[in-house]
Write a structure and sequence with these properties.
By secondary structure, the protein is an alpha+beta fold. The protein has four domains: 3-43 and 183-214, no CATH class; 52-170, Beta-Lactamase (2-Layer Sandwich); 237-341, Helix Hairpins; 342-493, Heat Shock Protein 90 (2-Layer Sandwich). 55% of the residues lie in helices and 16% in strands. The protein has 13 helices and twelve strands. Strands 2-1-5-4-3 form a five-stranded antiparallel β-sheet. The protein has a five-stranded mixed β-sheet with strand order 7-9-10-12-11, with helices on one face. Strand 11 (476-481) and strand 12 (485-493) form a beta hairpin. The longest helix has 56 residues, at 246-301. The chain is rod-shaped.
């Protein structure tokens, strides 16, 4: 076993052990308390059921031969002395009370003389319930010697010499309670020690098996995570849906897939960025080399050049400066799109008027190349809801590109058609077309194209168009065949007036 596996989640295992032991101890303590409580109730109910008729027997045997009252109406204390003597010979815990019909205590040997008073009463409700059930129900009654406690009893009614009341016998008196408490304490001590030892033994066995079983999947996940951390990017948790912690297993697998995917993307982007730097360096180097060459020529041969030649060189220099400036502007513009620093401000505007303006702008360039530039269906005013400046930039790049790749006496047509709730914009040319194998990559500035096309250069224009379409949640499609021309098509939402 590796060091990583030896130190597998020690805090978690420790917490599981502590929680498990506490639960077992709590269960053991609860078991002892519940067992003791019901055992005590069981003993009391048994004692009460066995001695339920004691009060009736006392009345039948003692009161038939001698009245509990003297001729002057007072209690026959000597009779009760004999009764207590006889009963305590059998059961020292019994306490006998003579009650009147309201529950007042007329006499008891165990009470102080001041407590033998009808004002000192016992609740009649338990007595009446006991008599009604014939002693078959477990009922607790008042303890005359301790008003805050209740004890098992036996009771029976009497009617002697015109006087009525109850004989009330406490079956578990003060002496019984003392002995019972001592025995119960010893019982709990023995039961507690035995239960704790037994509980700890079973806790150790069950805890070891349970924790091993519960952490099985966790150990598997930890080993897999370690492998992934150490560089095994293919490491995954097998059959995560069967794991006890399915959500974590699935989350790890998804996270690992995402990390690997992001790493691949980062590698791809890094490669593409290197290609971009190389391409941009090439694009910048060409106009810079031309500029340098013509400037040096003007410096060296300024005295031998004619005015026409000087003007020609200056014009070439000026054109290359424009070209260089345009390329740098495109790079800055594209970098803003890449960094997501451009937010479209959408508003309704006439795409027809915008197309007229752009055609007028490129009319001179088109005529110079003998290219017919026109707007299809120019009389219908078509409104769209989009960012006017971004759409203008996209159309300008597409028209400029179309003119660039169209041969003299060719055509460039801008078409606007309403299709459903959208306006379809189509820029079609009769130029050289785009090779089929390069069509998927023309909107991606990072991708390499073949050398012949690269020599002319697609530039960043189409890549910027693609970014503008993305900002408008639409797509641009290219339809092209070599030597037959190209069509660039995209849709914008129509503005409903």
């Amino acid at each position: 076993m590796s060091a990583a596996e030896k130190t597998l989640t020690p805090r978690l295992v420790k917490k599981l052990w502590i929680a498990f032991i506490l639960i077992i101890l709590l269960m053991g303590a609860s078991y002892i308390l519940i067992t003791g409580y019901f055992a005590n109730k069981y003993n009391q109910a048994t004692a009460q059921r066995i001695n339920a008729d004691v009060a009736n027997h006392l009345i039948e045997e003692k009161f038939q031969n001698a009245s509990p009252f003297l001729e002057d109406g007072s209690v026959n204390k000597s009779l009760f002395g004999d009764i207590m003597h006889d009963m305590m010979a059998v059961n020292r815990s019994i306490e006998v009370y003579l009650l009147d019909k309201t529950g007042g205590i007329l006499y008891s040997v165990v009470l102080d003389p001041s407590d033998n008073s009808p004002e000192n009463k016992v609740s009649l409700a338990p007595i009446q319930s006991f008599i009604k059930s014939h002693g078959q129900e477990f009922i607790l009654g008042d303890d005359p010697r301790n008003k805050d406690s209740q004890k098992i009893f036996s009771a029976a009614p009497y009617a002697i010499d015109g006087r009525e009341g109850f004989v009330y016998i406490i079956l578990a008196g003060k002496e019984f309670q003392l002995i019972s408490n001592n025995l119960l304490e010893q019982y709990f001590t023995k039961l507690g020690i035995g239960a704790i030892l037994l509980t700890m033994t079973f806790a150790a066995i069950i805890g070891l098996l349970s924790i091993w079983f519960l952490t099985k999947n966790l150990r598997l996940m930890t080993r897999t995570v370690r492998k992934f951390q150490e560089g095994d990017l293919e490491a995954r948790i097998k059959k995560p849906e069967n794991s006890d912690i399915e959500v974590f297993a699935l989350s790890f697998n998804e996270m690992a897939d995402t990390i690997v995917s992001n790493m691949d993307k980062m590698k791809s982007i890094d490669t593409l960025r290197r290609e971009l730097i190389a391409n941009v360096s090439h694009d910048l180097r060409t106009p810079l080399a031309i500029l340098k060459g013509y400037v040096e020529t003007l410096q060296i041969k300024r005295d031998s050049l004619t005015e026409d030649e000087k003007q020609e060189y200056i014009q070439i220099t000026h054109d290359n400066v424009d070209k260089l400036s345009n390329l740098i502007n495109q790079l800055f513009e594209y970098s803003k799109f890449e960094a997501e620093q451009v937010t479209p401000i959408k508003e309704p505007f006439s795409i027809t008027e915008l197309s007229h303006d752009l055609i007028a702008k490129f009319k001179v360039l088109a005529e110079k190349k003998q290219i017919k530039l026109q707007l299809d269906n120019p009389n219908e005013n078509t409104m769209v809801y989009a960012d006017v400046s971004l759409v203008e930039r996209a159309l300008q790049n597409l028209i400029e590109n179309a003119i660039k790749y169209t041969e003299p006496k060719g055509k460039v047509i801008v078409s606007l058609h309403k299709i459903g709730e959208n306006i379809e914009i189509n820029i079609t040319d009769t130029g050289t077309g785009i090779p089929i194998n390069e069509q998927p990559y023309i909107f991606d500035r990072y991708k390499q194209v073949n050398k012949s096309a690269k020599k002319q250069g697609y530039g960043l224009g189409l890549a910027i168009v693609k970014k503008i379409m993305d900002l408008h949640d639409t797509t641009i499609t290219v339809l092209s065949k070599p030597s037959e021309g190209s069509s660039f098509i995209f849709n914008l939402p129509a503005y409903q007036v």
